[in-house]
Amino acid sequence: MPTATYPFPTRSLVPVSGEAESPTDEILRAARELGHALTNDLQAPFGTLEIVLQTVPLPTDLYPLLQDAMIAIAEASGRVSQFQATVQNAALAAREPHSGALAS
Length: 104
Description:
The chain is mostly helical. It contains 2 helices and no strands. The protein has one domain.
């Protein structure tokens, strides 16, 4: 079976600029970037499965397996969205002067 290679370059979650960040800012930025990267990474397999299901003649017993795979990817995408909302809330809380949440 051929192995799949990731066709897109990956990028580091380490800041490029020389600007110093607080540990909290570093964590929040990395979490935001991770959320975006995971969302993008999940789109390719989901879209591929969708195209295969709509265009490729397959044995009938494979359809439920592929549909289950699509459901699993959609659920993972939902968890990433929840993670991104949590990160956004944490970022807002960290900027409030007296929140105490994730204070650095």
